[in-house]
Write a structure and sequence with these properties.
The chain has 151 residues and is mainly α. The longest helix has 28 residues. The chain is elongated and about 50 Å long. The relative contact order is 0.13. The N terminus is likely disordered.
Length: 151
């Protein structure tokens, strides 16, 4: 009798764990679009943060060490966002690729701005600012296409 009770308890726990694992896998499978949306928004926010930091540096309102540190941190954030966008499973591979490219372009511009800041090269930083603005617009366009209603 005790053996049967113990067997039922364990089988119930395994059943619950199995249901939980199934629920988590289903919710993960359904969240690729959510993941892409979240990471796209993160990248857009990161781009705005970089522009504010670089603008503050250009105006003399932020020290170089602060601006460089901000760009280094944002560079890591963009790399992570880009990787998560690329690795998400989606039924919109062309639109996903456009989002990933825009995030990559942002990363390249951040690296360029960081190098310009460290060298004290204002023209290089200004060129990187333009690249950041262009990549931000590309990200916004790619985001709109990815999440546009499908016929």
């Amino acid at each position: 009798m005790a053996y049967q009770t113990l067997a039922l308890i364990f089988s119930g726990r395994f059943f619950r764990l199995g249901c939980l694992a199934l629920l988590l896998s289903v919710s993960t499978a359904c969240s690729s679009s959510d993941q892409i949306e979240q990471q796209s928004r993160t990248a857009a926010s990161a781009a705005q943060t970089v522009l504010m930091a670089v603008d503050a540096w250009a105006a003399g309102a932020a020290p170089t060490t602060y601006a460089v540190g901000t760009l280094q941190s944002i560079g890591k954030t963009l790399a992570d966002a880009g990787e998560q966008i690329r690795s998400a499973e989606t039924s919109e591979p062309a639109e996903q690729a456009s989002l990933a490219k825009a995030v990559n372009d942002l990363s390249v511009a951040v690296t360029r701005a960081e190098a310009g800041l460290q060298a004290g090269d204002r023209p290089e930083v200004q060129d990187a600012q333009q690249d950041l603005r262009l990549a931000s617009r590309s990200l916004a366009t790619a985001y709109a296409k990815y999440f546009a209603p499908k016929p």
